[in-house]
Amino acid sequence: MSITIKNSSEIENMRIAGDIVGRAHELVAKEIKAGVTTKHLDKIVEDYIRSRGAIPSFLGYGGYPATINASINEEVVHGIPGSRKLKDGDIIGIDIGACYNGYHGDAARTHAVGNISDENKKLIEVTKQSFFEGIKYAKSGNHLHQISEAIQNYVESNGFSIVRDYVGHGIGKELHESPQVPNYKMPSRGIRLQAGMAIAVEPMVNIGTYKVTVLDDDWTVVTIDGKNSAHYENTILITDGEPEILTI
Ligand code: MG
Q1: What are phi and psi of 206, to 5 degrees?
Q2: Is 140 helix (H, G, I), strand (E, B) or coil?
Q3: 2 band by pLDDT with thresholds 50, 70 and 90
Q4: How far from the centroid of its chain's Cα atoms is residue 57's Cα?
Q5: Ligand 1 centre from 107 Cα, in Å?
Q6: Domains plus CATH for the chain?
Q7: CA 233 to ligand 1 centroid distance, Å
């Protein structure tokens, strides 16, 4: 599929979808504490998305059974909400997508549950900051893989590794559109960015090896060494100046 350039009415729908996703994150963040199940978090987000007249983007996508991804500790992405209770010292990545009037927004945050180790605090901070390091290059006229390289450089200079098997993506009428947005250096410069492109930039950062595998549920991605992983993502709009972050 070719890369879509959004017109002003499409952008307006994406701003609303992004606002719904951003506010759903603020809402769910307040609920994260020891003893809470990931199913509870899922319900809060689903109810909020529907209250805004939107649809959860992930529910039913490729058969996915829930509204959010809830990925705890060594789970990288795509953890399925259920009866598991959060424990003090856990970290949890929450990924949320919402579709408003046919347009998607997609964003992820990683949170501490109670008191976490200094290493986990650093992991969460570096993962978030790597997104902002990457999007310094997200403007019209630059090349896509400048974003990718900046993310990898920042993550590795902080002693962590960046996941290769899962990447960011174009977004709009489809949750996943062209182009793919890798978080690591590529042999090519990648496409030239143009105003009106929308992409989801989503570094997944591991404490140990970057290698991951998928559990028997066919969804949950985990690190192969069992060390923790964090995820941070926003949907952004390319402009002639600074990118517009749609999901904050
Ligand atoms: Mg995404």
Answers
A1: -110, 150
A2: coil
A3: confident
A4: 13
A5: 6
A6: 8-245 (3.90.230.10)
A7: 7
